[in-house]
Each structure stands twice: as structure tokens, then as C-alpha cells.
Amino acid sequence: MPNDLVVLRPQGLYCPAGDFYIDPWRPVERAVLTHAHSDHARRGSAHYLAHADSAGTLRNRLGADITLQTLAYGEAVTHQGVTVSLHPAGHVLGSAQVRIEHAGQVWVASGDYKLEDDGTCPPFEPVRCHTFITESTFGLPIYRWPAQPVLFADINAWWAANAAAGKASVLYAYAFGKAQRLLHGVDSSIGPIVVHGAVEPLNAVYRAAGVPLPPTHRVTDPQLTKADLRRALVLAPPSAAGTPWLKRFGEHSDAFASGWMLVRGARRRRGVDRGFVMSDHADWPGLQKAIGATGAERIIVTHGSTDVMVRWLCEQGLDAQVFATEYGGDDLDDNPSTAAEEPASAPTSEAAP
Ligand SMILES: [Zn+2]
Ligand SMILES: [Zn+2]
């Protein structure tokens, strides 16, 4: 429609009135970024605007010399008569929803978000708007996450049992966001925590932002004895699976933490002993709650189960449509191709017998 505040262009989501893009997938003049995951934050744009807590990760990933303006949550800037502000999305450190106001219209682009407060970034805040642009990574009714105390009790019990049996516990999780959430939530009194080289730089960014994380070791740490390694929790990105780096831990149990672990066969396909259902995205009830809380009458769905979500929204009497974006392709947890097979008809724990 002619007065839409955000339209779809080949480069990404575009705000014509303000002449800027939100999370563009091609280089542009002005990019407002929701967060530093690589499907949302891409190289080559001339100017970036993002939350202050994203600065460290963005400079790491896009180049130390990028032109980056940062905002605090709730702080507004006006560009060509369009007011832009960032609001907590609860997804990873520095993640934000982008609120755009112009000529009496308010639009909000969510980026990725999650509702449950995990203690590693400010929780999602619903923002009232006329049009809400939402993700739908887990937009199917089967996706319902266990409450965090249940999740962490499971992870701690698995770690403690392995430690008692003299085996390291290797837990695969995406290095930015998921790994820090695990660190923050596990019971660090069970044993030492060893992190892969891809994880520690992100830990440093979180610690610098004031997020409390337990002490972490590198496997080369001379303080660690062989006995320490046999009762350690080892956090590594999925790409570390099958690499020589794991040999240092000897016989170990392994597990994968992802929302896709709710899908039948996902754990088996990963070839790990355990699957923990954990996501930095909203589950089906979370998406519905978040969308409802905006009060928006028009909803645009960007990635994930877009068609199912649009159908459901239309049934609720809302004006809903899809923007075909290039989000969701990079990080494993965002990647629908890892869940290509049919979802299980009922959630299964996928626990090894
Ligand atoms: Zn993300
Ligand atoms: Zn994403």
C-alpha cells in the first residue's frame, strides 16, 4: 500500500519515508540492525544503527571500522521525519525490536525474539503498534518450550550423572546467545566448565556488558587435570562435532541444545546422546502472545513457518501477509532445513533410553 512504513525490496525491509533498511541482506546506504546474528547483520552497508550492546559483536563480525551509531533501549532518533527507537527483543545480547513512527503510523519490526526472561539480556517488551512485522521460526502448534527451571534441571542432572561416571559432558549449542544462556543457567558447582575457542570471545562480550557468567576454562588451561576434564561441562558450537578438539575429553557423553530437538529424528540425525529443547525464539504460544500484545491489526510474517502463521492470524480476523526475506539461513538454530522432516505429532523428549 502506498503509505506503508516498511516495504519489501530486493535488498531487504525498506522504510521509504526514512530511506533506510532493517536487517538488509544486501549492502545498502543505511541499515538498522535488530541483532548481531549473521542472517540479520551483514557486511558492506555504509551506515549501521543498532543497540549499544550489539556494538562489540557487530564490530567483530562486520569489521572494526564500520560506521555504527548505537542507541539505548527506548532512546529515539529522528531521520527525515521518521522516529526510530529500539526495544528489547529478549533474543540475544543487544537484540532489539525496531519501532518506526511517521505521520501518526507506528510499525514495529521484531527481528528474532523470545518471551521468557533468561537473565542474559533484557526480556521482550511488547510495543503497541498498528503493524507488527514478526518472525515465525517456530510457528507451529507443536512447538512449546519447557519452562527454564525444568530445562536446567534436566541439563544439570545429565551433567552430574556423567561427572559421577567419570565422563565429560559435551553440549553443542550455537556460540552466540545459546552458549551464554547455558552458562548463566547451569549449576556451576557440579564441575569445571570448558568452552570451545569459538565461544569464549562471545562470553567476553557478555561479561563486558555486565552479564554474570560462571568462570570458564579453555581446554589448554594448565590448571585443568585429567580428572577435571572427566567431570567437566564442555560447551562447543555444533561445528566442533567430530573434530580432533574433542579427543582431549576422552570418552564423553554428548548433547545438543536446540528448539529443533522437539522434532522427531533431530537428535538421532545429530548423532548425539541427548537433545535438550531450548530456543532463543518464541514458541507457538509465545508468538501468539507477543503478536496479541502489540494490539496490531496488520501483521507481516518474515521467516519460519510463515504460511501456517498467516493462516492462523487471518482466522483471528487480522490482516496478515508474508514478506519473503533471507533470514533464518545461517545459524543452526534458525535453520529450517535442519527440521526438514515431518514434525512429531506430539512433543517427544528425544531422550536416549
Ligand atoms: Zn537471531
Ligand atoms: Zn534469525
Automatic annotation (TrEMBL):
SUPFAM superfamilies in the cross-refs: Metallo-hydrolase/oxidoreductase
The UniProt keyword set, sorted, is: Exonuclease, Hydrolase, Nuclease
Stretch list, region Disordered: 326-353
InterPro entries named in the record:
MBL, RibonucZ/Hydroxyglut_hydro, Xnuc_lig_assoc
Asked whether the UniProt record includes Transferase among its keywords, one would answer no
This protein's record includes keyword Nuclease: yes
Residue stretches spanning the membrane: none
In this chain, composition skew of type Low complexity spans 336-353
Q: Which GO terms describe its molecular function?
A: exonuclease activity; RNA endonuclease activity
Query: Matching NCBIfam families, A to Z?
Result: Xnuc_lig_assoc (TIGR04122)
Please state what the protein is called.
RNA procession exonuclease-like protein
Source species: Acidovorax temperans
